[in-house]
């Protein structure tokens, strides 16, 4: 019984912390280029297509928040 309560409280706290992080900082580093926006190559550099060379991506939680806001409107 106590273990289930502890798991539930931990899950709720971690979800609220992630939601606060998505609210304060909606962008995270791009996973493909590690936030650099480009890749070194033999003949110059190649820009990251996933983040459009900004090095930033929208967090998953922010995607969900935007979707729910769009549905509500």
Short account of what is shown:
The protein is α+β, with helices and mostly antiparallel strands.
Describe this structure in words.
The protein is of the alpha+beta class. It has one domain (2-72). It contains two helices and four strands, in the order H-E-E-E-E-H. Strands 1-4 form a two-stranded antiparallel sheet. The protein has a two-stranded antiparallel sheet with strand order 2-3. The radius of gyration is 18 Å and the shape is elongated. The mean pLDDT is 90.
Provide tags for this entry.
single chain, 73 residues, alpha+beta, two-stranded antiparallel sheet, two-stranded antiparallel ribbon, 2 helices, 49% helix, elongated
Q: How many domains?
A: 1
Mean pLDDT: 90
Strand order of the largest sheet: 1-4
Count of runs of 4 or more consecutive helical residues: 2
What pattern of helices and strands is seen along the backbone? HEEEEH
Sheet with the most strands, sense and barrel status: 2 strands, antiparallel
Strand % is: 15-25%
**Rg calc:** 18 Å
Overall SS class: alpha+beta
| Tally of strands | 4
Low-confidence blocks of residues: none
Gross morphology: elongated
- State the end-to-end CA separation: 41 Å
The helicity comes to 40-55%
């Amino acid at each position: 019984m106590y273990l289930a309560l502890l798991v539930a409280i931990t899950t709720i706290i971690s979800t609220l912390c992630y939601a606060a992080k998505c609210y304060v900082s909606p962008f995270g580093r791009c996973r493909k280029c590690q936030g650099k926006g480009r890749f070194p190559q033999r003949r110059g550099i190649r820009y990251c297509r996933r983040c459009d060379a900004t090095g930033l991506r929208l967090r998953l939680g922010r995607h969900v928040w935007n979707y729910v806001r769009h549905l509500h409107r």
